[in-house]
Structures are given as C-alpha cells and as structure tokens.
Write a structure and sequence with these properties.
eight-stranded parallel beta sheet; binds manganese (II) ion
Length: 273
Amino acid sequence: MKFAGSLPPRDSEKAIYEIIGVPFDDNATIRGASKAPEMIRRASQRLETFLWHSKLELSDLMYYDRGDLHDIADPDFDSSFDTGTGKRKIFIGGDHSITYPLFKYYFERLGLTKIVVIDAHADFRDVYMGNRFSNACVMRRIAELAGFENVIEIGVRSASWEEYELMRDRVRILGIDDMPEEQELEGRLYLSIDIDVLDPGIAPGVEYPEPCGISLEVLIRLVRAIIKRGDVVACDIVEVNPELDIKNGITCLNAARLVFEVLASYWLKDHES
Ligand SMILES: [Mn+2]
C-alpha cells in the first residue's frame, strides 16, 4: 500500500518529494515501531486528501512513496533512496535510532551539518541498557558526529540530570513556543520529529509516553515555520508504535496527518515566493 495521494509508480520520475518507510525497531526497548510505516500508510487512507487549512489537494503535491528501506542497521545500508536529485524526503520510522544512520548519510555525502529535533526526550545518554545506539542515545551520537553546536532540540520535557549537565551549555535547547533564530536555520537541515513530543492523550502509541505534551496543532505550526524558514532536505517522523496504540489508531492517524503537513509545507516552501 502506498501513502495516500502518492503518484503511481509509472509517474514516480515526476515526483519532487519522496516518502520512504524505515521499518526498524531493534534499538527500542519495546518492539513494535517497525510496524509503523505500514500502519501510518493505512491510516493515511482514512483522512481526506484535501487539506482544509491550506486548501491544498494532497495528490497535487507531486510526491512518491518509494516503499521501505530495510537495511538501515547495516553501515553500508542501501542508499538508493538518494537518487542524487535532491528531492526533499520524509522518512517514516521506526524507532528514533534510525535518525543516526540517516543523518550520518547526509552529513558525509551532502555536507549537511545541522539537525533540528522535536522530541519530549533529550536522547543524550551515552549508553542505554548496554546499547550505545539505543533510541535513548541517538542525539548524543549525532552531536558527537556533527558537533554539539549543530544540534537544536525543541520541546524537551524529560532528561536525566547527567544529560542536562552535558547539554545545557553546548546544545541549543528551545521551548515549544520558541523559534530558532534565522541564522540558526541557515544551510541545509535535517528535521527529526519524535511523535512522543505530542501529549500522550493524543499519541498514546509510543514507547515512552511523557506527560504534559503538546497538541498536534502546535506541532504543525512549529513544523510549518521551520520548513518555511529553513532548507529542510530530509525529515523523519519516528517512534510511532502501533502495537501500543489504542484501538482507533489515533497515534498512527496523527502521524499520517503530520506527514500531510510536512508535504504541504515543502510544497509551500518551493512554490510561494
Ligand atoms: Mn522521545
């Protein structure tokens, strides 16, 4: 099944944006996020493809769902997702650890240095349950690779004291109502959205639900503003765990809606001047 509104395979060359699933959850403590790409695609079929607020029709946005990337854990993972065309991407995870190999790919091949992450958690542990590549360590590994000064964390509401000590003078930490400065968004960016930044009431299907989260409207406003001001070449949406979701699939549905909004934001960025 393709994501709602995707171009059909025969028109894939015409796409200007691409969706790629990353069904990987080996670095999570509770498995299940590997089912998210499929379940978010399914959820996307339940939503109207006409976006009321922006008055855009999703199927006009010229994007293609390229299916799933399966060997993300392999250091030489299949990078055929990168066709060299510079098409803006949306990766649908997967646990948060997928952000490290994806960011590293862009860092090494395309000279992308900055990451903006929207997450309830700092993810700055050195090691978690014996695993340095755990989803709880992902931003630490990225900061060590790209420099702490190239990490902007928005919406964090949970970290250990040790994580906070390490980060507080070295990483840009913003509240949910703050926007990065214009110059902080200069250059090409990677945007990582952990769905657990949302309140557990509207996104219960996550491994580490964290009380006092934000609404989907607030998250969408933030994502729109970042994509409008910065040059986001790749975005991921991670940590949806369909096995922990409630029966009506609201976490998957909200994630699908977020994908719609990222696509619309890409389109507005490239077509409004
Ligand atoms: Mn998180």
